[in-house]
Design brief:
6 copies of one chain form a homohexamer.
Chain A (H helix, E strand, L loop, with lengths): L2 E2 L16 E6 L14 H8 L6 E2 L4 E2 L5 E7 L6 H17 L3 E6 L5 H11 L4 E5 L19 H9 L4 E6 L4 H11 L1 E4 L5 H8 L3 E7 L21 H11 L3 E8 L10 H16 L1
Parallel strand pairs in A: 2-5, 2-6, 6-11, 7-8, 7-10, 8-9, 10-11
Antiparallel strand pairs in A: 3-4
InterPro entries (chains A, B, C, D, E, F): Agmatinase-rel (IPR005925), Ureohydrolase (IPR006035), Ureohydrolase_dom_sf (IPR023696), Ureohydrolase_Mn_BS (IPR020855)
Organism (chains A, B, C, D, E, F): Alkaliphilus metalliredigens (strain QYMF)
Family (chains A, B, C, D, E, F): Belongs to the arginase family. Agmatinase subfamily.
C-alpha cells in the first residue's frame, strides 16, 4: 500500500549530504508593517507543490534530474528580530561552507540581509540582482534601521555602490528614488528593459538573486503584504528566469508570499512555479 | 405583478422542441484530485448570468435572436464514475439524434469523453479543438485510466492521430509532451499562434470544441481546480471564439469552473461570457 | 509619544479653508441591482491609503506638495434616493462656489449625476470624459429613470450631444450601442485608442472626469458590483491619467469600488493609487 | 434520464391553485444601513434547501404531506422604496384574498410592514408576534420614517397598543426601551420566558409571526446585517416554533438573512430549517 | 540550529514498530453529494495541531506519555470508490493484525465501512458507537448502495441488530427513523442522554467508536459537508469522551471535517482537540 | 449638511482634559506565534462600533452619560519588542498620573505587561483579574522570556503570590498547571464558578482587569490568534462584567481580537460590546 507522508517541496528528495542545492524556509515576518503572514509561505508552498509537475515546459528540464534537499524551516521566534537574523545567517553560512547553493523561501524581505551577508563572506565580489515593487532603500522605517523597507539599504551598507541592480521598482519615497539616482544602485523603474545589458556586465561574477514576489502584478499575485498594481506578468517572470540561467548564481531567495491574503490559492501556485524554475537554473 | 422564478441561463428560453441548441450541465467532478467543486459550475452560472447582457459587442449579436433551450443538469451521483459517464453519453446522443447542437457545461474535464463519443458516432470524421493549460494525455493517473488528467488520451484512443489539436498547453509530464511531439496530437504550447492555420485545415470538417477554462490565466480565472499561471487573457479568448465562428461546430463543452475557489465571483462572470459567445457562434 | 488617530486619505491634511482640492465620499449604493457595497468604498480607502506612498513615480510628484482637504463622507440614508442625490448636489455646489475642485469617491455611479449637475451650473460648456465598462445610457432600468445603469443618459438629458466621451465600454444592450452610434455620445468601445485625439479637441474647455473603476479588467479590480472581463490594465489607467494631466479638469469622481467583494484587498489598493494620481493632476 | 432543473424550496411543489400555503421571496434591502445583502436570501435558500430533508424530527412531520406553492420572488427595484413596498402589499393581498397563507422570505425587516398591512385588512383583530434582536421601534432613522429600524413602530401606527409582542430584544436606544415600557408593546428582553403565557392570551386570535433571524445568536447565525451577540440558540428556536404550532397563524415572514456575510453557509442552512418548521406549523 | 520539518500530528512521534496506536488519514470524499472537501482534513489537522498543547486539562493526561505513530495518509484515487475502500480495509487489517489500535481520520463517512469490516474480522462481537447528526441508514442514495448517506446501513448488513448505538441524530428521512425504531439500531435523537446506560451495557465488549464531527453544532463546527444546526456542544463532546474512557475501544475514526468551508480555522482546531482526547483514551 | 468623518469608538467623544476614562489602542502583535493580526483590532473596532448602540440593556446605562476620550493608537514598530513595551508603559503612566482610568485595546496579550507595570507603580497593592483560555504562565516560549505565552508569568515576577486570579483557563502545558497549583496564582479552570467569592475577597483593593477575548468560546469569537473551543459564552461575559461592576477597577485591557480571521465580522461586534460594557463599569 502506498502511503503519503512527505512534507517536502516536490522533487526535493535528495539527502543533505548528496544535494547540490539546499531549499529551506525562513519563516520570519516580525517587521511587516501592513499585513503580516509571510511566515506561512514555506509551509503552504510545500503542500501546494503537489499540484505542480516536476517538469518545466519553459526550460524543458525536470526537477528529478537535479540533486536538491529540502531542509525544512529554520525555527524562529518573532519577538526578537536580531536573534532571528543571526540564526538565518548561521544556517546559510553552513550551506555555503559545504559548497552547496542555498535557495531560501521567506518570510519578509528582511531575511535577505543575513543570507546575503553569509554568501558575501565567501564571495567578496558578489553582485545582487533585486526584483521588487519597492525600492527598500530607506534609511529608517518607523524608527528602525532593520526592516523589510530598509533591507537593500542595509545590503548597500556593506556592498557599496555598483553592486545592487534593481528591477520592477514602482513604489518608494521621493528620497529613495533620488538616492538611487545618485548612483548608489542601478534602478530599472517599472520593468526590466535593461536586464540583458546588466546580465552581460555581471556574467563573470558571482550573483545573488533576491525576488520579492510583489514585483509581480497583484492580478496574478495578490497574496503579499503590500500589493502594488502595475507589476510584471508571470510570463515576464518566466522570461527573466530564462535570461538569468546563464549567470553564475551562488544563492537566491524568494520572499513575501503571504498566502492567507489570497483565498484562491493562485499566489501560492505562482510562487511554487517561480521556485521550480529557480531551482532548475541554480 | 412581475414574478421572478426562472432558473435558466440568460436568453436560453426556447422549448426543447423548437430549439436548435441545447445548453445543459454535467455536474460531475468525481476524479478531481487537487480541488473538487466543478460540480457547482452550471448551477452558479445560471444564477450569475442575470448580471450579463444578452447582447455581445464582440460579435455584435444577441442571444435573443437564437433558438436555445436550457435543459437543466443531468442528475449524477459521485461514487460511481462509469454510471455518470454513461448517462452523459446517452443524453448527448439524444440531442445529436434530434439534429440539435449540444453545449455542455462541466463538471471536470472527464465529462468531455462521453460527449465526444456520442458526437463521434454521428460524425466519423470529427476533429477536436482542445483549449487547456494541461495536456491531459497521460496513460494513467493515480492508477486509473479514466480521469480528468487522461481524458484527451482516451479521446485519442478512438479518434487516433491527426484529429486532436491542442492550444494553450503549459503543464504536463515530460512523457506527455514527448508523446504529443511524436505526432499523436498537434500541440500549440502556451498560446494559439497556429490557430489560423489549423482553422484553415479543418474548415470543411465537423468540429467539436472543448474549452477547459484553466487555459485562461488565473489572474482572470482563479476559480478552477488546478490554476496554472501563464495562460491566455480573456481578450485572447474572445479573439479565438471569433476565429472559430467560421467552422462547422457540431458540439462543444466548457469545463472546470469551480466557482467556490473564487470568492470575487469574477471566474463565474468570465465563464458566463465565454458561454454566451460560444452560444452565439454555434 | 506619537499617537495615530487620523482618518483621512493619505496626504490630504490641509484645512478646508486653505485647500484647493476637496476630497470627499458619497457613500450611496441604493440602486445597485447586482451586488451592493460601494457605500463602503471611501471609508476603506482612507484606512488602506496608509499602505501607499504620497510620492508617484509615474508622475514624479508628491501629494505633500498640494493643498488637499479630506472633508469626510456626506451622511446619506439609503431608502430615499432623491434626498441622497440632493445632498450630494448641494455639497458639490458649495465646493465649486468657493473655487475649489471636487474629487468625489462613490458610491455607485448614480452619484455622478448630481455632481455633474452642480459643476455644470458654473461651467455651461462642460465636457464629460467617461471611463467605464458599461454604457450607462439606458432610458429606464428595472422601471426607474434614475439608476446606476441610466446615469449617463440622465447627464445627456441636460448636456446634449457632443459633450460626453465614453471609453472602455464593453457591455450594454443593443439599444444603447445604437443610440450612441446615432451621434448622441462619442464611444470608444473596449479601449481608449481615440483618447489623444479627443484630448486635443477638448483641451480648451472645462472638463469633468468620471471614472467607473469597472473600466479596469477584473483581474486587477474584482471588487466591484458588476465585473466585466476584458477591461483595460492598471498600466493603461496610469497612461490615461498622465494624458489627462494637460486638461483643465474642474471636477472628477471615482466610483463603484465595492471593497467587500475582493478579500485580497487589491481592489482597494488599486482605487487608492488611481485617486492619488487623479489628485496629482487636478 | 433524470434531469434537475427545479428552482423551488424543497417540498414546495404544489401549483398555486391547489396550494394552501404560498412561499415567496421579497428581495428588498434598500434601507439597510450597516451591511446590505438580504436581497440574496430567498434565492440562496432555495438552492441550499436541497441539502435539507423534507422530514422534521422535531415536529415529526414531512413537508410532502402539505400543499405548498413556491411563487418565486417579487421583482423589485432598489432605488424607490415606496414602489417596492406597494408591490409587496399587493402580492400579499392577492394571497390572502384567495384564502391561502403567505410565508414571506425577506429581504430586510421593512418588508414586513406592507405584508402585515395586507393581512390586517382581512383580520382586524390581528396580533403580531415579533422575534428580533432589535426593538425596531424608532420614530425616525437617518432622517427617514420608513426603515428597517423603525418597522415595528410603523406597524404600531395602525395596530396600536396591546397588539405587538416582542421577544429576544437586546439592542435599541434608551428611548425605544422606555417607549415600549410605557405599555405600547409587550417586550420580553433577551429571551422568551413569557412566551407560554402570551400564547395562552392570544390563542383565539389571528396571529402574524415575524421572525428577524438576528434574534438567533450570531454564533449560529452570523449571516445578517447587524449581528448582536447574546441571542437565543437554534434549539430555542425549535422550541418556540413547536409552541407556536397551537396558534391560528394567518401569515408569517422570516427576514434578514444576508448569506454573503457567512462564508460557511451555516446561516443559510439555519434559515432553511426555520422555514421548514414554520411551513409545517402554518 | 533547530530545524522544523515534521509533518505529524503533535505528539505522534513513535515509530511504527514501538507504537501501540496508529494514527492515519483516509482522504477519500468521492461520494460527498453536497460539499466535498473532507479529503483535505488529515493534512490540515497535522499542520494546525502545532497550535495545540499535548497536555489535556480535561483528562489530565499528556500525549507524550503514550506510544503513538502517525503513518501518514493512504494514497487514494477518487474515481474508483471500490478500490479506495479496499485499500483502507487492507491497511486497517494490517494495523489490527499487529495488535495496534487504529485511529483513522476521514475523509467522508463511507471510509468507516471498510475500517469496521477489518476490525470486525478480529472482534466478532464488536459493538459500534456512532455519533452523528445524520442517521446514515438509507438503503440507497442517488442510486448507489455505497455512500456516506448509507454507511451505517451497510455496517448493519454484517453486524445485524443490537450492535449499533447512535447518538445526536437529528436529520434523516422518515423511513430511516422508522427503520431504526423497529429495533435495528438504538437511536438517541438530538443528544446523548442514554449514553451512561449504554456504556454500562457494552462495557465488557470490544467497541469501535465512529465520530462524524457534524454531530457537533455548526456554531462551533461549520467546516463540514452537511452542517445541521441543533447539535451538541464541544463541552458535551469532552464529557462524552471522558465517559467512553472506561470502555475497551479497539478502533476509532473521526470523519467529515471539510476544512475549507470554515475560513476561521476553528473547525480544524476543534477536530484536533477531539483527536487528542480520543488518542488519550485509546 | 451633515458630514461624517469621525474615527472614534462610539460615544467616546470627550476631550482628553475633561475625560475620566481614556480609551486607546496598543496595536502590537510582534510575538504572536500562530496567527498574527491583533494589531488591526483597535482600528476595526472603531469603525464597526457604529453598528452598535451607546445604550446597554444589560447594565441599563448609556455611554453618553460618561466622560470618555478616545486617544487613538500608540504608533508602534514591530521589529523591536522592547521599544514597543516601553512606549505603552509610558503612555499608561501619563494616563494614571492625571487621575484617569486607562482602557487599553490590544494587540496581543504581551501589551498587558507594561500597562500593569505602570498601574502598579501607583497602586502597590494591585490585584489582577485575568480572563483567558490560556494560562500564559510559561517561563520561556520559543526561547524568549517576553512573549504573549509568558505574560502572566512576567506579571507574577513583580506582583508575587496571591495577587493574580485566573478564570476560564483551558489550555497550557502540564508545568503551567502544576506551577499555578503550587499556589502562585489562583486558577479557575474552564469557567468562573469562584468569581463571586474572589470578588468578595478583593473588593477593597485596587483591581486591574485583563480580558484575553479568547476566553470566549470560538463559536462566538473565532477571530483570535489561538482559538480554543470549550470557552464561556457571550452571556457569561455579560454576567461577569456585571459582577465586576462593584469593584474598584483602576485600569483594564481587552486583547487578542484578530479581526481578519473572522470574515463574518461577528468577533469585532463581540469585542465592541465587551468594550462598551467595560467602559460603563469603569
Amino acid at each position: 500500500m502506498e502511503m503519503f507522508n512527505q512534507y517536502q517541496f516536490i522533487g526535493c528528495t535528495e539527502t543533505l549530504e548528496e544535494a547540490k542545492i539546499v531549499f529551506f524556509g525562513a519563516p520570519y515576518d516580525g517587521t511587516s508593517s501592513f499585513r503580516p503572514g509571510s511566515r506561512f509561505a514555506a509551509s503552504r508552498i510545500r503542500i501546494d507543490s503537489y499540484g505542480l509537475e516536476t517538469y518545466s515546459p519553459y526550460l524543458e528540464k525536470d526537477l528529478e534530474q537535479y540533486l536538491i534537499h529540502d531542509a525544512g524551516d529554520i525555527e524562529l521566534g518573532f519577538g526578537n528580530r536580531d536573534v532571528a537574523l543571526k540564526e538565518i545567517n548561521e544556517f546559510v553560512k553552513e550551506v555555503v561552507a559545504s559548497n552547496k547553493k542555498p535557495l531560501m523561501i521567506g518570510g519578509e524581505h528582511l531575511v535577505t540581509l543575513p543570507a546575503i551577508q553569509a554568501v558575501h563572506e565567501k564571495y567578496q565580489d558578489l553582485i545582487v540582482l533585486h526584483f521588487d515593487a519597492h525600492a527598500d532603500l530607506r534609511a529608517h522605517y518607523l524608527g528602525e534601521k532593520l526592516s523589510h523597507a530598509t533591507v537593500m539599504g542595509r545590503v548597500w551598507d556593506f556592498l557599496g555602490d555598483e553592486r545592487i541592480y534593481q528591477f520592477g521598482i514602482r513604489s518608494g519615497t521621493q528620497e529613495e528614488f533620488k538616492w538611487s539616482a545618485e548612483g548608489h544602485t542601478f534602478m530599472n523603474k517599472f520593468g526590466y528593459e535593461s536586464l540583458d545589458e546588466i546580465i552581460d556586465q555581471v556574467k563573470n561574477k558571482p550573483v545573488y538573486v533576491t525576488i520579492d514576489l510583489d514585483v509581480l502584478d497583484p492580478s496574478i499575485f495578490p497574496g503579499t503584504g503590500t500589493p502594488e498594481p502595475g507589476g510584471i506578468s508571470f510570463t515576464d517572470m518566466m522570461r527573466i528566469i530564462k535570461k538569468l540561467s546563464i549567470l553564475n548564481i551562488v544563492g537566491a531567495d524568494i520572499v513575501e508570499l503571504a498566502p492567507d491574503y489570497d483565498p484562491t490559492g493562485v499566489s501560492t501556485a505562482v510562487a511554487s512555479k517561480v521556485i521550480r524554475e529557480m531551482l532548475l537554473i541554480l
